[in-house]
Design brief:
This protein is an alpha+beta fold. The protein is 33% helix and 27% strand. The chain has helices at 9-20, 24-37, 69-72, 84-87, 99-105, 154-159, 163-180, 204-212, 214-218, 261-269, 310-329, 334-338; strands spanning 42-48, 54-59, 108-114, 120-126, 129-136, 141-147, 185-190, 193-197, 220-226, 230-237, 242-243, 249-253, 256-258, 280-281, 283-289, 294-295, 306-307. Strands 5-4-3-6-2-1-7-8 form an eight-stranded mixed sheet. A five-stranded mixed sheet has the order 9-10-15-12-13, with helices on both faces. A two-stranded antiparallel ribbon has the order 11-14. Strand 3 (108-114) and strand 4 (120-126) form a beta hairpin. Helix 1 packs across helix 5 and helix 2 (24-37) runs parallel beside helix 7 (163-180). The radius of gyration is 21 Å and the shape is globular. The relative contact order is 0.12. It binds adenosine-5'-diphosphate and magnesium ion (MG). Residues 30, 34-35, 38, 59, 61-64, 72, 77-80, 94-100, 142 line the site of adenosine-5'-diphosphate (ADP).
Length: 342
């Protein structure tokens, strides 16, 4: 056996990138989540060639102080948690301190960032090597441009799908981020063409309308449920509005999009016999709970989470939907009642 050695930092970052950055949509996710964590009001995502040529995310958030920018690109460097205690009470989207070094190790990345009232800073890194950095004039906020994704990891590059597929992954990702954060105005543009824009006024039904169309949004009803541990709010479609796939169901836990088999099942159970076999409702459901009840650190991209009291939450979800749909049967003029905000 060869000698045991510690991996060079760049190689370690590339290995970490393998888990966190799978495709252009992962870059969009990580950059937008950082912008959300920085309390941005507005986030613009501009991609070229479905992100295969370039991904740019501009935010108006807190920015990074000039002297801390290089640190932000170090692995496990984060401003979001400082202790094990906080790891179990995460309220931000990020906390692992991996995204920036991961992206920078497998692409060309330029960040221009500034905090209000101070000089900005520009940082250019490619394949983990810093090519240039220094003071730069910039508006408060952060502007990150990523190009040549996977230029130095040919296996990953080969694994990418057609531009159409990559773009639809980006679109889906932006939709989920917008649904989870209706108070932030998020836009997506590909090759100069605007594909999506949310108003950022906090109206979830309007975000749903921007994504699925006003017709769909009007056939969705607000749900609200609560017990000692969970509050649920969101919109579900009337049983008459369904699709053949599950893609139109968005589950958010403390604003974070997650996949969860049992909760999806609980959602469908709320419809009882009202759905035809193989048909699925539209749903956007935001579940709020004490961060202590959820472990978000079980998946590198945080797609899956581990929930305490999952059965109890499923039960609450089912009964909340059941009760709401039962109520709807008693009100004939549905459109009138649910469409008032649109
Ligand atoms: P994490 O989000 O897990 O902390 P990242 O590698 O994504 O790790 O980012 C590292 C740090 O850089 C963050 O903790 C944050 O302090 C800072 N940062 C990254 N992006 C932004 C941004 N858009 N605005 C302000 N600060 C940012
Ligand atoms: Mg992050």
């Amino acid at each position: 056996m060869a000698q045991i050695q510690e991996l060079p930092a760049i190689l370690a970052d590339q290995i970490a990138a393998g888990e966190v950055i799978e495709r252009p949509a992962s870059v969009v996710k990580e950059l937008v989540e950082n912008a959300i964590d920085a309390h941005s009001r507005r986030i613009d995502v501009l991609v070229k060639e479905a992100g295969l040529a370039e991904i740019r995310v501009i935010d108006d958030g807190a920015g990074i102080p000039a002297d801390q920018v290089p640190l932000a690109f170090r692995r496990h460097a984060t401003s979001k948690i400082t202790s094990k205690r906080e790891l179990f009470r995460v309220t931000t989207m990020g906390f692992r301190g991996e995204a920036l070094p991961s992206i920078a190790s497998v692409a060309d990345l330029t960040m221009v960032t500034a905090v209000a009232g101070a000089d900005g800073y520009q940082y250019h890194v490619r394949g983990g090597e810093v090519l240039a950095q220094g003071v730069a004039s910039a508006r408060p906020g952060t502007d990150v441009t990523v190009s040549q994704l996977f230029y130095n990891t040919p296996a990953r590059l080969k694994y990418l799908k057609s531009p159409q597929t990559e773009l639809s992954q980006i679109v889906d990702m932006v939709y989920r981020l917008a649904l989870g954060n209706p108070t932030v105005a998020i836009s997506l543009t590909n090759n100069g063409k605007e594909l999506f824009r949310s108003a950022g006024n906090g109206n979830l039904q309007q975000v749903i309308a921007a994504i699925y169309g006003v017709k769909v949004a009007r056939k969705m009803v607000a749900i609200e449920g609560q017990d000692d541990d969970f509050t649920i709010h969101g919109y579900v479609s009337l049983p008459e509005l369904t699709r053949a796939g599950r893609k139109y169901q968005t589950l958010l836990i403390n604003h974070r999009y997650v996949r969860n088999f049992n909760l999806t099942k609980a959602l469908i159970e709320g419809y009882g016999s009202k759905l035809m076999v193989g048909r699925y409702p539209f749903a956007v459901i935001d579940i709020n709970l004490d961060p202590l009840l959820v472990d978000v650190n079980v998946h590198p991209a945080k797609r899956e989470v581990r929930l305490s009291k999952e059965a109890q939450l499923g039960q609450l979800l089912t009964t909340t939907i059941q009760a709401r749909l039962a109520q709807e049967n008693l009100i004939p003029d549905v459109g009138e009642k649910t469409g008032q905000l649109l």
